[in-house]
Amino acid sequence: MIKGNVIKYGDNIDTDVIIPARYLNSSDPAFLASHCMEDIDTSFVKRVKKGDIMVGGKNFGCGSSREHAPIALKAAGIDFVVAASFARIFYRNAINTGLGIIECPEAISEINEGDQLEIDVLKGVIKNLTQNKEYSIAPFPPFIQEIIAKDGLINYIKEGVQG
C-alpha cells in the first residue's frame, strides 16, 4: 500500500527533464536527486517529500534509455509514478530500479497537485483521498510486485541466486 501527496506534471515529461543530461556523468542517486526536474520546476527538490507520488500525462519518461531518470526520481523521494501512459523503456527501467509505476489514464485529468492518493497494487485500486474518488488499475503480476518490493531487479536476482 502506497500513500502520498501528488506532485503533478503534464504530457511528454522526458528523461532529460527528469534529470538533465549535463548531470549524467554521475550515477550517484543523491547527486541525481539534487538536480531532478530542475529544468522545468526549480522548486521540485525543495518541496518533494519521501513518499510523494508523481502524476504525469501521456508518454511519461520518453527520451533516453538510461536508468538515471527513475533513479533520480526515487532518490528524490518519489515512491510511485501514475501516468496516462509511459514510454516503454522508462517503464522497464522504473521496474528494474524498484520505482513503482502504473498507468491510469482515466484518473489523470481528475487528480490535482497536492491531492493525497492511496495506491493498492495488490487489489488494483487508486483512491484519491482528497476527492473521495476511486479508480481501478490492473494489478502487477506477482513477480513485478516482488521486484519492486526488493528495491529493483538486481536485488531480486541476488536473493534468487542466494536462495
TrEMBL record:
<comment type="similarity">
    <text>Belongs to the LeuD family. LeuD type 2 subfamily.</text>
</comment>
<dbReference type="GO" id="GO:0003861">
    <property type="term" value="F:3-isopropylmalate dehydratase activity"/>
</dbReference>
<comment type="subunit">
    <text>Heterodimer of LeuC and LeuD.</text>
</comment>
<keyword id="KW-0432">Leucine biosynthesis</keyword>
<dbReference type="InterPro" id="IPR033940">
    <property type="entry name" value="IPMI_Swivel"/>
</dbReference>
<dbReference type="GO" id="GO:0009098">
    <property type="term" value="P:L-leucine biosynthetic process"/>
</dbReference>
<comment type="function">
    <text>Catalyzes the isomerization between 2-isopropylmalate and 3-isopropylmalate, via the formation of 2-isopropylmaleate.</text>
</comment>
<dbReference type="InterPro" id="IPR050075">
    <property type="entry name" value="LeuD"/>
</dbReference>
<keyword id="KW-0100">Branched-chain amino acid biosynthesis</keyword>
<dbReference type="InterPro" id="IPR000573">
    <property type="entry name" value="AconitaseA/IPMdHydase_ssu_swvl"/>
</dbReference>
<dbReference type="Pfam" id="PF00694">
    <property type="entry name" value="Aconitase_C"/>
</dbReference>
<dbReference type="InterPro" id="IPR011824">
    <property type="entry name" value="LeuD/DmdB_bac"/>
</dbReference>
<protein>
    <recommendedName>
        <fullName>3-isopropylmalate dehydratase small subunit</fullName>
        <ecNumber>4.2.1.33</ecNumber>
    </recommendedName>
</protein>
<keyword id="KW-0456">Lyase</keyword>
<comment type="pathway">
    <text>Amino-acid biosynthesis; L-leucine biosynthesis; L-leucine from 3-methyl-2-oxobutanoate: step 2/4.</text>
</comment>
<dbReference type="InterPro" id="IPR015928">
    <property type="entry name" value="Aconitase/3IPM_dehydase_swvl"/>
</dbReference>
<dbReference type="InterPro" id="IPR011827">
    <property type="entry name" value="LeuD_type2/HacB/DmdB"/>
</dbReference>
<feature type="domain" description="Aconitase A/isopropylmalate dehydratase small subunit swivel">
    <location>
        <begin position="42"/>
        <end position="103"/>
    </location>
</feature>
<keyword id="KW-0028">Amino-acid biosynthesis</keyword>
